[in-house]
């Protein structure tokens, strides 16, 4: 194998991160049914509001892997965008997460748990050779990342 063809296959064995941002808005309520109402208010404050409240969530999906020599891509971002929309935003957008999304029937829909759920959904659909990380912005200033 010539030096040139080695370069062509994988320039420096470098991994590259690609990102796709998607948006959804959804309602939720943080309420632990095993606590009293007073404990729930003390811990969750406004997020315990009985009639729910909404957030404009920004979802950032990071995929890390080697650049494929045939395409120059780590992953086709159109494919990734379609995947996120089909598996996550179509299911979460304009929904009440507690009531409408089965994953949260028994799981508090905190930003942390939403990020873990999104990761688990996408991880099954993305090639195992690629690393995946989820960042979820619940507000411009409050965001979580999984895996940490
Ligand atoms: Ni909230």
Describe the model.
The chain has 148 residues and is α+β, with helices and mostly antiparallel strands. It has one domain: Tetrahydropterin Synthase, Chain A (2-Layer Sandwich), CATH 3.30.479. 32% of the residues lie in helices and 28% in strands. It is built from five helices and five strands; from the N terminus they run αβαβαβααββ. It has helices spanning 3-9, 37-44, 77-92, 97-100, 111-123; strands spanning 15-28, 53-66, 95-96, 131-137, 143-146. The protein has a five-stranded mixed sheet. It starts with a helix and ends with a strand. The relative contact order is 0.19. The structure holds nickel (II) ion. Nickel (II) ion binds at residues 28, 47, 53, 55.
What is CATH's topology name?
A: Tetrahydropterin Synthase, Chain A
**End-to-end C-alpha gap:** 40 Å
For the sheet with most strands, the description reads:
5 strands, mixed
Strand content: 25-35%
H-E order:
HEHEHEHHEE
Helix content: 25-40%
Number of separate domains: 1
Radius of gyration: 19 Å
Average pLDDT, to the nearest integer?
93
User: Any ligands, ions or cofactors bound here, and which?
Assistant: nickel (II) ion
CATH class bucket: Alpha Beta
**Secondary-structure content class:** alpha+beta
């Amino acid at each position: 194998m010539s030096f040139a063809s080695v370069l062509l296959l994988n320039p420096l064995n470098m991994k590259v991160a690609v990102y796709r941002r998607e948006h959804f808005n959804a309602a939720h309520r943080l309420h632990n049914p095993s606590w009293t109402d007073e404990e729930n208010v003390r811990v969750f404050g406004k997020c315990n509001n009985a009639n729910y409240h909404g957030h404009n969530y920004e979802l950032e999906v990071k995929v890390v892997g080697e650049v494929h020599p045939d395409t120059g891509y780590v992953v086709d971002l159109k494919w990734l965008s379609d995947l996120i929309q089909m598996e996550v935003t179509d299911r979460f957008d304009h929904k009440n997460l507690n009531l409408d999304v089965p994953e949260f029937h028994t799981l508090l829909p905190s930003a942390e748990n939403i990020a873990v759920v999104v990761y688990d959904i996408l991880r099954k659909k993305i090639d195992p050779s690629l690393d995946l990380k989820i960042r979820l912005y619940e507000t411009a200033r409050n965001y979580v990342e999984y895996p940490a």
